[in-house]
Amino acid sequence: MRRLSAILHDPARAEFCIVAIPTELALLESGRLLRALRKDGVAVNHLVLNRIVSADGAGGDAFVARLSAAHAKCVAQARAIGESSGVRVTTVPFFDTEVVGLPGLRALGSALFR
User: Fold this and answer.
1) Cα–Cα distance between 38 and 95 in angstroms, integer?
2) For 2-15, what is each residue's pLDDT tens digit?
3) Alpha carbons 25 and 105: distance in angstroms, whole number
4) What is the CATH number of the domain that holds 59?
5) Among positive and negative, which fits the CA dihedral 84, 10, 8, 46?
6) Crossing angle for the helix pair 24-39 and 62-85, nearest 10 degrees?
7) Which domain holds residue 97?
8) Nearest 10 degrees: CA dihedral of 17, 20, 22, 23?
């Protein structure tokens, strides 16, 4: 356990990437996790918001439009967290199918590393 702890606390060897869904509660918990990890000396440089529904996909559907607006608010909150803490924020869109296999991982990778 000491060796693992030493690795986790060495920013040259490890860093923590927080991944959250776009809800207010998830962002509050992510912010708390970020502060706790940093207080403990663990490097945190990335926050990923997963399954973002964009306004582009609303197509006139009222529910999707409300969901998109809520996600946009969460993205703005996440970016504020990122700016205040020096963490890079990345968004990943909501995929219409489950991300499985090599094609799914390629699509996910394209969204993450654009």
Assistant:
1) 32
2) 999 999 999 999 99
3) 27
4) 3.40.50.300
5) positive
6) 20
7) 2-112
8) -130
What is the number of structural domains in the chain? 1
Tell me how far apart the alpha carbons of residues 14 and 7 are, in angstroms, rounded to a whole number: 6
Reading the block at residue 112, the tokens are 């993450």
Q: What is the pLDDT of residues 42-71, one digit of tens each?
A: 999 999 999 999 877 556 688 888 999 999
Structure tokens at 32: 């708390």
Burial class (CB in 10 A: 0-12, 13-18, 19+), 43: middle
Please, which residues bridge with residue 52 across strands?
93
Neighbour tally for 76: CB within 10 Å: 10
Count other C-beta atoms under 10 Å from residue 16's C-beta. 14
